[in-house]
């Protein structure tokens, strides 16, 4: 069975939205398929995007597209909860993002079984720490 997009069945939270303008710059734009809309964080670091599923999933690939100049930097990490239901996160993989506007793909060396996943951007290529992300997709399998 091939991998499928898991984002449609997830709940998403983000660290911030520029000017609290969730209508035009909110998290929903990460998944709408439009090249014209985006999630735009407020300034400051760290920034993050978290996904939660109602039952475990097996993640194999993460795809993200940013605006050049407003990208998560080379120290971006993929995190999972320390334990089920925990608010403590630990790094599962690093993702050395490039400052480009084209889609970037992280193929995980081993599938990651989890009910929550967080991309954390400890720094940004933007001087003020803003992130502008046009697309986020998580591929894998439902368990």
Parts with pLDDT < 50 across at least 5 consecutive residues: none
Number of strands: 8
Could you give the order of the helices and strands?
A: EEHEEEEEE
Helix content: under 10%
Rg, Å, rounded: 14 Å
Topology at a glance:
Elements: E1 4-5, E2 10-14, H1 22-25, E3 39-40, E4 47-66, E5 76-81, E6 89-95, E7 104-121, E8 132-142
Antiparallel strand pairs: 1-8, 2-4, 3-8, 4-7, 4-8, 5-6, 5-7
Architecture overview:
This protein is mainly beta and 143 residues long. It has one domain (4-142): Galactose-binding domain-like (Jelly Rolls). The protein is 3% helix and 50% strand. The chain has one helix spanning 22-25, and strands at 4-5, 10-14, 39-40, 47-66, 76-81, 89-95, 104-121, 132-142. Strands 1, 2, 3, 4, 5, 6, 7 and 8 form an 8-stranded antiparallel sheet that branches. β5 (76-81) and β6 form a beta hairpin. It is globular and about 40 Å long. The two termini are 12 Å apart. The mean pLDDT is 96. It comes from Scylla paramamosain. This is F5/8 type C domain-containing protein. Residues 1-141 form the F5/8 type C domain. InterPro entries: FA58C (IPR000421), Galactose-bd-like_sf (IPR008979). Pfam families: F5_F8_type_C.
Summary?
It comes from Scylla paramamosain (Mud crab). Helix content is 3%, strand content 50%.
Features:
143 residues; mainly beta; Jelly Rolls; 8-stranded antiparallel beta sheet; globular; FA58C; Galactose-bd-like_sf; F5/8 type C domain-containing protein
């Amino acid at each position: 069975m091939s991998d499928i997009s898991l984002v449609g069945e997830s709940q998403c939270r983000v660290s911030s939205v520029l000017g609290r303008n969730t209508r035009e710059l909110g998290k929903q734009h990460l998944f709408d398929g439009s090249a014209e809309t985006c999630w735009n964080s407020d300034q400051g670091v760290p920034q993050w995007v978290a996904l939660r599923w109602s039952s475990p999933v097996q993640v194999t690939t993460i795809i993200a597209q940013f605006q050049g100049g407003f990208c998560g930097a080379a120290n971006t990490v993929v995190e999972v909860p320390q334990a089920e239901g925990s608010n403590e996160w630990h790094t599962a993989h690093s993702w050395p993002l490039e400052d480009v506007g084209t889609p970037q793909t992280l193929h995980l060396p081993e599938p990651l079984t989890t009910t929550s996943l967080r991309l954390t951007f400890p720094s940004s290529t933007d001087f003020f720490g803003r992130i502008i992300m046009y697309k986020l997709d998580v591929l894998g399998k439902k368990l």
